[in-house]
Task: structure prediction
Amino acid sequence: MKKTVSFAKNSVNLFFHILTTCNLKCRHCYINPSQHGRNTLSIKTIENWLTLFADKAQKANVIFLGGEPTLHPDLALAVKKAGQLGYASITIDTNGYLFNNILHKIKPVEIDYISFSLDGATEYTNDLIRGKGSYKKCIAGIKQAAALGFNTSLIYTVSQANLHELEKMIPLISDLKIERFFIQVIGLRGNLAMPKPLNSNQSSMAQVGADLWLKIIPKVAIAAARLGIRVTYPKVYLKPDELFECAGLVAKNYFVFPNGRVYRCPICEDYPIHSLSIVDNKLSKRPKINEMDLFGLKIPQGCVMNKIIQPDNLPPEGKTGEQYKIACCLLKEEIF
Result:
């Protein structure tokens, strides 16, 4: 079954970056310490900030992020606090190194998913993107988590550097007993938004064009779903007659960073145009002009943030000349 996942208007999704420190230096990392902060939140602050968002809707979901969140010595306490506050789902996004013995400090019943990041079906491709040794470490982490009874999911960020191995991921994730597979589109944020290449191979991290995306991604998703794996991927391209909606206007997504910035749109995260701030453990609206003032602008190309913030981002046209609108980056397709 395939469906477009509508924006949930009665739930809150909290993307909670509790630190920006990481042991890896992935070529496509979106973390920008100059904009997001370099501090690590104390457990008291984490608990206070979790409380701010817990009752903003009938249902609240939290994803703990970094940097690498398992580097935080009190991540287990944060997970437990989220459960006490009634968060409907709790996820940890990790690179697989699983620091601080995290799997033995939480129980499978306390968390919905541990979500791992892998960007190649082979060690060579993954480690070229994420760093030497990261493939084996991630695979080992997935196996360890599964053996202890945790639900596992996997994130694969597609670029020209690893598109050729996406189909090879299907038998791998099946063997690893992965339950959910998230295929992501690479964004021009963080490292990839820097004016100069990080290394001589940076150009290979370019985005996949409309024709290849529409030809390959749905096909791979369907193949994985036939094996019982739930697959989610961004819709990315809308046909001219399809309705465009901006999640910033119709959903309650909050992207929270250690310096107190709170964004409603991830595309905006390289700039100080966040619409909310947390100061003294209170959530406050920021003065104009901020991201919320831009969400309502209507353009024929679809997502206005894609056009204004990332003008070199996804083009609204395939090589065949077919025209598309760029969907909100948070609009997802799901196949199961």
